[in-house]
Amino acid sequence: MKNILISLVHGYQRFISPLFPPTCRYYPTCSSYMVTALKKHGAFKGAIMGIARILRCHPFIKGGYDPVPDHFTIFRNKDARDEYRKSMHLK
């Protein structure tokens, strides 16, 4: 199941995504986040995490660095974001 979902995301990345301008507010992109979440947490939890990330990606959010956390959560990885901002000497 995990491999099927990853194949679907790769199909999206290759055939559908190039048709639209880049608009993802997060790094890594939402589709890359989904693939990583599926590999790290399996089909069910990874899909939930990826869908939650897609729902968070909208024009009213600040965005920024948000890697897949090592533990299952549907919320943003604030610890990694804060560590990244500190290493880059950002606010």
Structural key phrases:
91 residues; mainly alpha; two-stranded parallel ribbon; 3 helices; globular; Putative membrane protein insertion efficiency factor; cell membrane; membrane; Membr_insert_effic_factor_YidD
Helix percentage range: 55-70%
Question: Tell me, what's the shape?
Answer: globular
Main sheet specs: 2 strands, parallel
Q: In sequence order, what are the helices and strands, one letter per element?
A: HEHEH
- Secondary-structure content class: mainly alpha
Oligomer: single chain
**What is the overall pLDDT average?**
91
Report the end-to-end length measured between terminal Cα atoms. Answer: 41 Å
Side-by-side strand order of the widest sheet: 1-2
Contiguous low-pLDDT stretches (5 residues minimum) are none
Report the count of strand segments.
Answer: 2
Strand percentage lies at under 5%
What's this, in brief?
This is Putative membrane protein insertion efficiency factor. By secondary structure, the protein is mainly alpha-helical.
Description of the molecule:
The chain has one domain (1-89). The chain has three helices and two strands; from the N terminus they run αβαβα. The chain has helices spanning 2-16, 30-56, 78-87, and strands at 26-27, 64-65. The longest helix is centred in the middle third of the chain and has 27 residues, at 30-56. The radius of gyration is 13 Å and the shape is globular. The chain starts with a helix and ends with a helix.
